[in-house]
Design the sequence.
């Protein structure tokens, strides 16, 4: 990793947004402002980054005939076939099994082809926890592609996508683990002479009932009402000795329908689990099932992380020391997200008088941070100023409140809407801000941080490349744009910021930017609702944590603002420890330990 760069607050008590992204995440995220209506306000933090579901199928019934499609890729007999791995293969996350390689196949045709790409990126990011991965369009699949991999995930998002029979035949012939998601399972069953006899189950029809709960491993997970119109494809178990229901959905009248079914080496999920994702979502069941393909020998560690958030030069040293003392008393290592420069360009919180304060100018805060380090804290960089220029972006223009690397505004119906990258956006511009932050840490007597927390978990594709070049890992959820992936894995290489989406992780991954990402999926305490985000208390975070226990090798990760009553932190930490999870360092998570 290079550190050479080409140059070209204590948390504000009113810092509303930080949770939003915490989110919004917490909740899964992401939504396309131009493509989907706001999701239910019961999902915390909807910030217009959530992926919608595919269009409703044309019929509840499945097609009865198979339209045979052959692969268009032809390999001359005199040539050696080169599989897709060398051209667009991705290295797995630290700790992934080096002997595992997962092929992620996705739909790409029709007006919603971009959705197929987005869903595939999300599946691939998750697969990286267990293995190397490669993305490939279904229409490009050629006979034998699966033979170069240890497992396969197919994300069927386009009804009757023209899947080459070579892919169908390879899936039917393999004994390797295959996860088939949503559409076109009927093409696979129609291609088989005895699908039910081989796998013990049969795909049946789309169910459009109001199924809002999915039970997996005995834990009830939520399913957003917006997912209902796209349907849930049903299966029937023909042979209980060969097939089993892994997860079931419950509708509004108590009816039970199959959500995930496994027969032999084939696992099937009856919907797209990456749409309308919330903090306690059935997405978590899909995360676990992806892990069983990417690394069938996945470890079963129970780790937890806590990050102390939005610590800037206006922070209260007494509060910082109190947090450090408590965490040390519980043997809890922690990260401290530091913003090195505080800016209030119009005096929003200073009686109209502009104010800038640098970390190097605040010896009491420096001392408190060094005390936190002595108690097990690790300083990470949380932007340079955590705000943009002298404009509201979208709130006040003040450090901690606003985005730094992306533009946003508040819509008339009170949603936070992601607009575009900032006007100056470039790799050099982002590197300049990082270098300015490093300089400030230098002046304050600290080493340059190795981890970066993007303000409000947002940046452009160029920004993410800059972050990757200067840090060992991001502590992040991530913002992605349709149409752009490195290594030719998807899209045309040009990000479309009218179609953005985000994702949270429950364990360390290496995402499509090639960056190691330390997870944070539980969000943070927010005492009041805002922008359609409900208030969030320790009980809510612990409820989400319990939902996350369905993920094998999952990490329960949250963040906390030190200006809040420390009793909230105590409730969360002790609640997580009571669930049998051990707090570890973000550095050990990054290393795959």
Sequence:
């Amino acid at each position: 990793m290079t550190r050479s760069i080409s140059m070209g607050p204590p948390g504000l008590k009113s810092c509303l947004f930080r949770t939003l992204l915490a989110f919004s995440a917490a909740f899964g995220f992401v939504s396309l402002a131009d493509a989907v209506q706001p999701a239910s306000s019961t999902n915390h933090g909807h910030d217009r980054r959530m992926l919608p579901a595919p269009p409703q199928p044309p019929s509840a019934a499945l097609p009865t005939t198979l339209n045979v499609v052959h692969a268009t890729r032809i390999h001359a007999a005199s040539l050696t076939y080169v599989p897709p791995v060398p051209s667009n293969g991705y290295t797995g996350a630290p700790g992934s099994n080096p002997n595992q390689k997962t092929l992620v196949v996705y739909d790409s045709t029709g007006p919603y082809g971009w959705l197929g790409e987005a869903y595939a990126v999300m599946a691939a990011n998750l697969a990286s926890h267990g293995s190397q991965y490669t993305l490939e369009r279904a229409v490009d699949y050629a006979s034998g592609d699966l033979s170069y991999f240890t497992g396969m995930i197919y994300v069927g998002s386009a009804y009757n996508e023209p899947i080459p029979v070579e892919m169908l035949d390879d899936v039917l012939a393999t004994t390797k683990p295959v996860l088939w998601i949503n559409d076109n399972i009927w093409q696979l069953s129609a291609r088989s002479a005895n699908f039910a006899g081989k796998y013990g189950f049969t795909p049946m029809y789309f169910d459009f009932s109001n199924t809002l709960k999915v039970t997996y491993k005995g834990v009830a997970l939520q399913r957003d009402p917006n997912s209902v119109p796209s349907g849930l494809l049903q299966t029937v178990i023909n042979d209980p000795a060969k097939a089993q229901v892994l997860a079931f959905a419950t509708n509004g009248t108590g009816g039970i329908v199959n959500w995930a079914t496994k027969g032999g080496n084939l696992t099937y999920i009856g919907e797209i689990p990456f749409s309308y994702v919330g903090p306690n979502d059935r997405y978590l069941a899909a995360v676990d099932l992806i892990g069983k393909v990417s690394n069938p020998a996945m470890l079963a560690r129970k780790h937890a992380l806590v990050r102390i958030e939005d610590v800037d030069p206006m922070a209260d040293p007494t509060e910082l020391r109190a947090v450090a003392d408590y965490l040390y008393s519980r043997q809890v290592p922690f990260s401290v997200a530091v913003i090195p420069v505080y800016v209030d360009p119009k005096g929003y919180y200073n009686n109209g008088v502009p104010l800038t304060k640098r970390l190097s100018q605040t010896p009491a805060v420096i001392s408190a941070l060094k005390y936190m380090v002595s108690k097990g804290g690790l300083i990470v960089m949380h932007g340079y100023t955590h705000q943009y220029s002298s404009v509201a972006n979208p709130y006040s223009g003040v450090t901690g409140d606003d985005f730094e690397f992306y533009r946003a505004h508040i819509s008339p119906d009170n949603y936070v809407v992601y607009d575009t990258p900032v006007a100056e956006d470039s790799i050099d511009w982002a590197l300049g801000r990082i270098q300015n932050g490093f300089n400030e840490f230098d002046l304050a007597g600290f080493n340059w941080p190795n981890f970066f927390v993007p303000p409000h978990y947002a940046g452009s594709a160029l920004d993410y490349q800059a972050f990757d070049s200067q840090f060992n890992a991001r502590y992040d959820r991530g913002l992605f744009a349709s149409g752009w992936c490195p290594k030719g894995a998807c899209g045309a290489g040009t990000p479309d910021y009218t179609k953005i989406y985000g994702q949270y992780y429950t364990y360390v991954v290496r995402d499509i930017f090639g960056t190691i990402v330390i997870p944070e999926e539980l969000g943070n305490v927010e005492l009041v609702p805002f922008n359609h985000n409900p208030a969030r208390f320790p009980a809510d975070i612990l409820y989400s944590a319990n939902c996350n226990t369905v993920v094998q090798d999952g990490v329960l990760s949250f963040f906390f603002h030190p200006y809040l009553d420390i009793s909230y932190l105590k409730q969360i930490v002790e609640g997580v420890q009571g669930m049998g999870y051990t707090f570890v360092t973000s550095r050990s998570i990054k290393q795959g330990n």
Residues 1-47, 73-83 have pLDDT under 50 and may be disordered. The domain at 29-42+301-590 is CATH 3.20.20.370 (TIM Barrel). The two ends are 20 Å apart (CA to CA).
